[in-house]
């Protein structure tokens, strides 16, 4: 036998022993049998796929083993500076501002905001030393500054500290959070409730937790900015109906159903989204009619009661109590703990399934830190006060009626808010604020092709300036009010500017009448002088 044949035989023998040893060691690794079966099946079905996977594995290994400092060491892709050049660059560098500088209007608005020295309440003290009647803060029940809530919060801080600063699903949930959710569910009459740490982020988290791409949402045109963000995040097909117009809602619902049948499209998830009391103008939804329509057309109802919870109803439960409708008739009942109970956060109440779904799909619940325990306990204590003292809402509604009675007797004012709403918006009643589009100078040759004439619109800039003058005049007379602030150009519709009053049960009827009289006189002075 030649030497070459012997060499080949020795090589084959070595390779055979090496393969056998590698195979034996490979099958000693846990899970190796699964990998072997996958490779064998993949190779038999598609050898080309096996080759591609081998190449990808080789590429991945090469990428991991490749030196990442080679180019840095060689200096090929790096510019070398000496010490003087580095110092010159540092001196020349000017950092960009984190935010754009304020405009003259924004600076004027900021300077006009009164600053409270000490705790807020129905009669806070300003840094100027003046004590004013507060009709600017959402303190419907008068719980802001309540001594019982303060004591409960102090004891909680001593026991729990300031908070875990962790998400509820990880290590942020404590026994007080669970108890507050039970208290809210029991108070409203629902199966369960879930609490969010921020009021504004509650509804933008609830909507996309249930509404996805391809779903249908029918929403009121007058919903607040938080709801608008939730609708945008959901990426659902949004159809709008005219503000607080049930006939328009029926028209939209029927149109959606006719279009679905015409296209032969399958049924998808469908929702009606609206507010109980609208934050933009204080008007109130017709809840019984909404429930009737959602049952008739097979929709789910998401109702935002951020303003109505803690302000209407015999014990402050909101529209469900006001209209004597079981809370279970509303699929998702969203509210603000910050407004109704003067602490922080928001909630969503409904069935067990609705609440449990949000614990893993509600982005603001999953990714935000939980509420501080002190504020959680204060909210729970606030619910106990509302239960035991229903006279709060009798006083609140008496104050609302007193304020409206004084305001409606004045000139230059229009009030779009519902008579039971503790949030009262006031528009300037002055027809000359309307801007009419220019009339056509010549008749069109074809009258049928002529565009309809534009409707008159409001001079928003002028109205804002007049309202700010009214706010400053009222403050000079000892009443703190505010303009309803808008995000012009970012919201769905540019609502008319308005003065926003927030009536509270913590003031006496005499104080409310006095404050309303000051507001009425400020309107008469500012608008009367301009006219």
Task: Describe the model.
By secondary structure, the protein is α/β, with parallel strands linked by helices. The protein folds into two domains: 104-143 and 391-434 and 455-530, Aspartate Aminotransferase, domain 1; 147-388, Aspartate Aminotransferase, domain 2, CATH 3.40.640. Helices cover 48% and strands 11% of the residues. It starts with a helix and ends with a helix.
Task: Please supply descriptive tags for the structure shown above.
531 residues; single chain; 2 domains; elongated; Aspartate Aminotransferase, domain 1; alpha/beta; seven-stranded mixed β-sheet; four-stranded antiparallel β-sheet
Kindly report the name of the CATH homologous superfamily of the largest domain.
Type I PLP-dependent aspartate aminotransferase-like (Major domain)
Which strand order do you get reading across the main beta sheet?
2-8-7-6-5-3-4
Low-confidence stretches: 440-455
Could you describe the largest sheet, including whether it forms a barrel?
Answer: 7 strands, mixed
Structural category: alpha/beta
Determine the CATH topology of the largest domain: Aspartate Aminotransferase, domain 2
Number of domains: 2
CATH secondary-structure class of the largest domain: Alpha Beta
Q: How large, in whole angstroms, is the Cα Rg?
A: 33 Å
Individual helix count: 21
Percentage of residues in helical conformation: 40-55%
- The CATH architecture name of the largest domain reads 3-Layer(aba) Sandwich
Average pLDDT works out at 87
Strand content: 5-15%
- Using the alpha-carbon principal axes, give the shape: elongated
Number of extended strands = 15
Please report the distance between the alpha carbons of the first and last residues: 123 Å
């Amino acid at each position: 036998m030649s030497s070459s044949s012997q060499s080949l035989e020795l090589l084959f023998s070595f390779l055979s022993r090496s393969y056998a040893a590698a195979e034996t060691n490979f099958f000693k690794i846990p899970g190796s049998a699964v990998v072997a079966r996958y490779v064998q099946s993949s190779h038999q079905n598609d050898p080309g796929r096996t080759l591609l996977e081998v190449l990808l594995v080789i590429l991945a290994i090469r990428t991991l083993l490749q030196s990442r400092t080679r180019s840095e060491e060689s200096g090929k892709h790096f510019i070398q500076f000496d010490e003087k050049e580095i110092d010159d660059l540092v001196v020349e560098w000017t950092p960009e501002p984190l935010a754009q500088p304020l405009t003259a209007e924004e600076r004027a608005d900021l300077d006009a905001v009164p600053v409270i020295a000490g705790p807020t309440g129905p009669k806070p003290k300003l840094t100027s030393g003046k004590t004013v009647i507060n009709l600017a803060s959402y303190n419907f029940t008068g719980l802001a500054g309540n001594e019982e809530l303060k004591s409960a919060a102090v004891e909680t801080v001593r026991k729990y500290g300031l908070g875990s600063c962790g998400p509820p699903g990880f290590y942020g949930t404590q026994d007080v959070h669970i108890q507050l959710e039970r208290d809210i569910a029991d108070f409203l009459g629902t199966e369960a409730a879930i609490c969010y740490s921020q009021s504004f982020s509650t509804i933008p988290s609830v909507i996309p937790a249930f509404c996805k791409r391809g779903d249908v949402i029918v929403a009121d045109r007058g919903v607040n900015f938080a709801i608008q963000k939730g609708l945008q995040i959901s990426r659902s097909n949004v159809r709008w109906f005219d503000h607080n117009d049930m006939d328009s809602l029926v028209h939209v619902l029927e149109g959606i159903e006719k279009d679905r049948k015409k296209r032969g499209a399958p049924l998808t998830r469908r929702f009606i989204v609206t507010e109980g009391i609208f934050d933009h103008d204080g008007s109130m939804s017709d809840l019984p009619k909404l429930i009737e329509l959602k049952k008739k057309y097979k929709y789910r109802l998401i109702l935002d009661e951020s303003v109505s919870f803690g302000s209407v109803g015999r014990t402050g439960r909101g529209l469900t109590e006001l209209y004597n409708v079981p809370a279970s008739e509303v699929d998702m009942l969203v509210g603000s703990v910050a407004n109704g109970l003067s602490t922080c956060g928001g909630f969503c109440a409904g069935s067990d399934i609705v609440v449990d779904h949000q614990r893993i799909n509600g982005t603001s619940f999953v990714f935000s830190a939980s509420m501080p325990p002190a504020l959680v306990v204060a909210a729970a204590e606030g619910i106990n006060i509302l239960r035991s003292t229903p006279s709060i809402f009798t006083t609140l509604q008496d104050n609302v009626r007193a304020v409206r009675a004084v305001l409606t007797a004045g000139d230059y004012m229009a009030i779009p808010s519902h008579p039971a709403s503790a949030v009262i918006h006031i528009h300037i009643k002055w027809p000359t604020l309307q801007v009419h589009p220019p009339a056509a100078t010549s008749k069109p040759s074809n009258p049928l092709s002529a565009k309809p004439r534009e409707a008159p619109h409001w001079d928003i800039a002028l109205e804002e300036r007049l309202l700010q003058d009214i706010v400053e005049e009222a403050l000079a007379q000892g009443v703190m009010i505010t303009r309803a602030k808008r995000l012009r150009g970012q919201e769905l519709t540019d609502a008319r500017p308005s003065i926003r009053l927030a009536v509270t049960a913590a003031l006496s009827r005499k104080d409310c009448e006095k404050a309303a009289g000051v507001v009425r006189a400020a309107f008469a002075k500012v608008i009367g002088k301009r006219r």
